[in-house]
Amino acid sequence: MTRLPPKGRIQKLTRLSLLVAFGLALYAVESFISLPVGRVGLANLATLLALILFGGGEAFLVMGMRVLLGSILIGGFFNPAFLLSAAGGVASTLVMILLFPFYPRVFSIVGISIWGALGHNLAQLLAAYLLLGQAQAIFSLLPFIPIISLGGGLIIGLLAWLVICRLPVQLSMIN
């Protein structure tokens, strides 16, 4: 990676901070929405945008800061909800980072998002099992995970695609 001049580093840090704040805002909004199947994962939009615009390390940073600050915001630091969120966020981000080199030849932004959602949901299921036990009850959700992941990943991927299409600058200028 090339060293950015101080102004470039400040701009990058500012943009990453805005993505973290955006992710936190989406997390807060989504916490007020009650769906029977759980959350869509709107906050993951910030992570996906960080991956597309800056790369894997920055995406991981945005996800980590979002999960950490989100747990502090709701007063659930290091409780089971935080651990489930962290497990899902890490898995989702790792899956998207691994698939991103295949964009756009093999996977679209939407496809990467769907696979990330699947990784997120499976990791949360595994973490819930490890934290809470009750394997039969937890794993009874397994058949629904691909459907839930498809829905959430599709929504987040389409939103990311819309944002990227409307950026006023070329992506090469951001990196």
Q: How would you explain this protein's 3D organization?
A:
By secondary structure, this protein is mainly alpha-helical. It has one domain: Arp2/3 complex 21 kDa subunit ARPC3, CATH 1.10.1760.20. 73% of the residues lie in helices and 0% in strands. The protein has helices at residues 6-31, 44-53, 56-73, 80-99, 109-132, 135-139, 145-165, 171-174. It is globular, with a radius of gyration of 16 Å. The chain starts with 5 loop residues before the first helix and ends with a helix.
CATH architecture: Orthogonal Bundle
CATH top level assignment: Mainly Alpha
Envelope shape? globular
Distance between the termini: 10 Å
Average of the residue pLDDT scores: 86
Specify the structural class.
mainly alpha
Question: What Rg, in angstroms, do the CA atoms define?
Answer: 16 Å
Order of helices and strands: HHHHHHHH
Condensed summary:
By secondary structure, this protein is mostly helical. It has helices spanning about 5-30, 45-55, 55-75, 80-100, 110-130, 135-140, 145-165, 170-175. It has a single domain (about 5-175), classed as Arp2/3 complex 21 kDa subunit ARPC3.
